[in-house]
Write a structure and sequence with these properties.
With 93 residues, this protein is an all-alpha fold. It has one domain. It has three helices and no strands. It is elongated, with a radius of gyration of 16 Å.
Length: 93
């Protein structure tokens, strides 16, 4: 089992923030005309991004001892927000 270590915690926070930067950069680079073909990937990305935020919020080092999950209802909420925020037009074609 993992014992609390500030260096490990700092490393995990650094990696989470790094991943968040990559997610943000990737979202910005998707051309609007390609969004319909990328919906599944975008939604999974948002779910994983939300999971990282949960890990960061609740002492990141805990992931070394405990499984972190998003309940199905929370995943649905993330998907719903993603559709509203990004105004996907997949179903309008």
């Amino acid at each position: 089992n993992y014992r609390e270590n500030k260096n490990i915690s700092n490393l995990l926070i650094y990696q989470i923030e790094r991943a968040q930067t990559f997610y943000t950069s990737a979202y910005k680079k998707i051309p609007k005309e390609d969004i319909n073909g990328q919906i599944a990937g975008l939604l999974m990305g948002k779910i994983y991004e939300t999971l990282l935020l949960e890990i960061k919020r609740d002492r990141p080092e805990q992931v070394l001892n405990h499984k972190v999950i998003l309940p199905p209802l929370r995943k649905l909420l993330v998907i719903f927000k993603c559709f509203l925020k990004n105004k996907f037009y997949a179903f309008s074609n």
